[in-house]
């Protein structure tokens, strides 16, 4: 990335010589001062954390105030970059703070010619200040995008809905020290890892662009930058781990944003062990420098692919807008092996010292659909209206209230027992076809809405993504006599009169 010719103001970490991590207030104060000083930047509050701390975003553009205030729709694609969802992964925040500074003061003119950028360097200010992975409620924000249980996740989702970014980049770190590997005498030897979405409900054009065009080109670009890049293989934390290709879970930002029509990418850089011969705590200076180079290299490669990205994103969003009853939705999927490549060799570093070794791991790279359904005309919610209605609105849907009693033909989506295991795909399930008496105040969600494929994934207990498999929703489907969710094959025109 082209940096400004004249050095700009030092970030809080640079000012203290990378001897300690600045807290969230220092980061926010620095970003606000940048926006006051440089006309390319506009700072705004994207929301508040569970602990009440501001989630600070920075718009970088030729007209950043319009981007910040959503007053005008730019002809350029928007890139949304999220850093440090995990409070103990500090280098994403540090690198993005440097990136914002450098672009704001005149670096990388070509990037702002191609894109508008919105950066949230520190999306988990609670975790930073409390020195832990989760937020103020000790919730893992990176897997909260379906439940939307935390204000931090809701803030990011609101930006996805308001800004409609063409590209989303989620910046993380992966620890080299994993207890299971360490018990066998090894550290992980993976350095820079990237991944693309792979949930089968994502637009095929987006999946193909990510898998066959962007992923190979980004890996080459990162290798050329000296970053030893590989695809993300999930958390390989034991010698008997089966390596997979990331994961199709919609609760992660990567897959969730792509289901909404964005090119969505994961960046993971190595987090050094907590003990070792490092000049600063956990080698934060070196980690930040690697993250900065990796983010810059990825943005440069994406700039070169701007035309292809815009074309595929436009087509994906038009397809989502035209979703209709009868379209196929994959409720659940599983990983399968590729006979042509049954194993993958991954680098491990001996704890006792010596050169890294390559070790083969069983490999399951394929995501295979297991159960598909046809999208109904609508979903009706006959109980827990406030709780379920709020959830759906956070995802951008518009449920409507029934105005008068009405009997309709419906298929009842009803679990026969509470589903308690998060991520389980085998909840007992009945799909009884019967007459359902809708009452005033019941909610009906028309599936002729953008992104309607998400509705069955949220509401059908046969899906591992279903909210009824996780607290606080898991207690709602416990009574077999109560019909909470039903599907309608047709939507009566006078239902809302």
CATH class of the largest domain: Alpha Beta
| Rounded radius of gyration (Å) | 23 Å
- Main β-sheet description: 8 strands, mixed
Q: Oligomeric state of the chains?
A: single chain
* Annotated CATH topology of the largest domain: Aminopeptidase
**Strand residue content:** 15-25%
Count, helices: 14
> Fraction of residues in helices?
25-40%
Q: Give the N-to-C terminal Cα separation.
A: 58 Å
Query: What would you call the structural class?
Result: alpha+beta
Q: In terms of per-residue confidence, which ranges show pLDDT below 50 for 5 or more consecutive residues?
A: 416-430
The overall number of domains is: 2
User: Would you report the number of β strands?
Assistant: 20
Write down the overall mean pLDDT: 90
Explain this structure.
By secondary structure, the protein is of the alpha+beta class. The chain has 2 domains: 12-321, Zn peptidases (Aminopeptidase), CATH 3.40.630; 375-488, no CATH class. Helix content is 30%, strand content 25%. The chain contains 14 helices and 20 strands. The strands form 4 sheets. The chain has an 8-stranded mixed sheet, sandwiched between helices. Strands 16-19-15-20-17-18 form a 6-stranded antiparallel sheet. The protein has a 4-stranded mixed sheet with strand order 6-12-13-9. Helix 2 (24-37) packs parallel to helix 4 (91-104), helix 4 packs across helix 11 and helix 9 (204-224) runs antiparallel to helix 12. The radius of gyration is 23 Å and the shape is globular. The model is unreliable at 416-430 (pLDDT under 50).
């Amino acid at each position: 990335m082209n940096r400004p010719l004249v050095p700009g103001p030092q970030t809080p970490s640079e000012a203290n010589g990378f001897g300690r991590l600045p807290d969230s207030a220092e980061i926010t104060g620095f970003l606000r001062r940048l926006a006051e000083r440089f006309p390319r930047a506009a700072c705004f509050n994207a929301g508040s954390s569970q602990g009440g701390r501001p989630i600070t975003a920075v718009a970088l553009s030729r007209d950043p105030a319009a981007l910040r205030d959503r007053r005008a729709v730019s002809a350029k694609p928007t890139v949304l970059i999220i850093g440090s969802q995990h409070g103990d992964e500090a280098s994403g925040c540090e690198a993005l703070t440097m990136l914002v500074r450098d672009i704001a003061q005149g670096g990388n003119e070509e990037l702002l010619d191609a894109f508008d950028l919105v950066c949230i360097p520190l999306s988990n200010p609670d975790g930073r200040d409390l020195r832990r992975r989760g937020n103020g409620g000790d919730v893992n924000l990176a897997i909260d995008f379906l439940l939307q249980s935390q204000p931090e996740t809701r803030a990011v989702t609101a930006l996805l809905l308001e800004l409609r970014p063409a590209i989303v980049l989620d910046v993380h770190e992966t620890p080299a020290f994993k207890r299971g590997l360490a018990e066998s005498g090894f550290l992980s030897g993976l350095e820079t890892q990237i991944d693309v979405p792979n949930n089968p409900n994502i637009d095929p054009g987006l999946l193909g662009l990510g898998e066959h065009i962007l992923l190979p080109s980004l890996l080459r670009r990162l290798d050329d930058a000296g970053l030893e890049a590989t695809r993300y293989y999930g958390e390989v934390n034991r010698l008997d781990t089966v390596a997979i290709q990331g994961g199709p879970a919609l609760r992660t930002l990567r897959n969730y944003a792509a289901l909404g029509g964005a090119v969505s990418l994961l960046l993971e850089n190595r987090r050094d062990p907590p003990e070792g011969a490092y000049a600063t705590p956990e080698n934060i200076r070196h980690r930040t420098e690697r993250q900065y180079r990796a983010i810059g290299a990825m943005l440069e490669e994406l700039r070169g692919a701007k035309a292809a990205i815009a074309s595929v994103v436009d087509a994906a969003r038009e397809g989502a807008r035209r979703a209709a009853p009868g379209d196929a939705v994959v409720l659940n999927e599983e990983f399968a092996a590729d006979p042509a490549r049954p194993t993958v060799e991954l680098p491990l570093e001996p704890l006792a010292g010596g050169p890294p070794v390559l070790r083969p791991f069983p490999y399951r790279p394929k995501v295979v659909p297991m159960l598909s359904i046809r999208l109904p005309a609508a979903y009706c919610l006959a109980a827990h209206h406030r709780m379920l209605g709020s959830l759906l609105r956070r995802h951008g849907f518009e449920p409507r209230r029934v105005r008068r009693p009405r009997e309709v033909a419906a298929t009842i989506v009803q679990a026969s027992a509470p589903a308690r295991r998060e991520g389980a795909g085998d909840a007992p399930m009945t799909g009884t076809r019967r007459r359902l008496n809708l009452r005033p105040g019941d909610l009906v969600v028309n599936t002729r809405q953008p992104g309607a494929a998400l509705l069955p994934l949220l509401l059908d207990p046969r899906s591992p993504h279903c909210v009824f498999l996780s607290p606080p929703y898991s207690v709602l489907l416990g009574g077999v006599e109560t019909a909470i969710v039903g599907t309608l094959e047709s939507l009566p025109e006078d239902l809302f009169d």
